[in-house]
Amino acid sequence: MLAVDSATPTQGVALFYDNRLIKEEFTNIKKTHSETLMLVIDRVLNECSYKVDDLDAIAISIGPGSFTGLRIGLATVKGLCQGANISLIGIPTLDAMAENVYSDNALICPLLNARKQEVYTAIYTSDSYRKNKITDYIAVSPEKLCEIIQNQLHNYNKDKVIFLGDGYEPYKEVFQQKLDKKVMCAPLHMMYPRASSMGAIAIDKYNKQEFDDPFAIRPLYLRLSEAENRLGRGAL
After folding, report:
1. Residue 117 pLDDT exceeds 60
2. Which residue(s) pair with 87 in the sheet?
């Protein structure tokens, strides 16, 4: 199975064989996914002596995230799956990020910088190394998110919240001020979406034969793009 992530400025490709991770590439530099994604996929397969036809399934992050990054990733994977008759598995980006960390006594809160003073997020608990999503996927201000977290800490009898993702750094003063000692951060190497984490979820879905239709799958958007907003305002 191949797992592909291009939902954010980071990019990742991971290859699994027989439930084992055998190769992963991760980059977090300012190159557009349109220039590099297919090259990375080709390199990962070639270095492991595999071809696209050898794959049983390809997993792809479906968002929320960058509008452009999601479209590039989905278009690439849909083309590969349709061309080689391979199963496709879509994984929400926030679910994959939550898979990066584990804690018995803390909530897990992946954050993606949604601009406009908001983050994309959802909140999770850990249960026997599986994550349980306890809120919807939302676009929300950091201040409002702190209120939601306080309520969920009480509801689930937790005393910490673990943040990860590029939505933490721009608003860390808000989180630290309102949540104080309840705030924890993921280790640096686990702060961003990882294709290997997404692949771990996708293997479970593959074993349950839970596939997506390449013709019907769509990105998970939590709000309209700027172009759609401008169109709605009559600015285009």
Report:
1. yes
2. 57
